[in-house]
Write a structure and sequence with these properties.
This protein has helices spanning 19-33, 36-56, 92-103, 110-116, and strands at residues 3-8, 16-18, 58-60, 64-70, 75-80, 83-89. It is α+β, with helices and mostly antiparallel strands.
């Protein structure tokens, strides 16, 4: 069914950040947490998502990014501050690979994972 990952930008001491930082993190996280077979299956869709998030340009403190998996509406969508960017990206396998960036065993920040899961960190 439908799923959502919502990120609220709360970067201390920084006014804004390039979405290229997100692209780097997505590429690293997917590569670190997916098997070679999974990676091959989602590679083109990861590029599509990265192009969409790159179109956003910059995000600033207070912005809200929602990454929704809406199977009845075509797949994964990116919304920034209520505005939908790009076209839906097909496949639950893509959304699962994307979630592994944040929740996979090889996440870049163990504190982020525990916070997203609502655990004490």
């Amino acid at each position: 069914g439908p799923k959502r990952l919502e990120l609220r930008i709360t970067i201390p001491l920084v006014k804004d950040v390039s979405t290229q930082e997100f692209v780097k993190a997505i590429n690293k996280g997917v590569a670190s947490n997916c098997s070679p077979t999974e990676l091959a299956a989602v590679a083109e869709r990861v590029k599509q998502f990265n192009a969409t998030i790159s179109d956003v340009g910059r995000v600033k403190k207070g912005d809200v990014l929602a990454i929704d998996y809406l199977p009845d509406q075509g797949g994964t969508t990116l919304t920034v501050n209520g505005k939908v960017w790009g076209k839906p990206i097909e496949g639950q396998d893509f959304y699962t690979a994307f979630l592994k960036v944040f929740l996979g065993s090889q996440d870049s920040d163990g504190r982020l994972r525990t916070r997203l899961l609502g655990q004490a960190g």
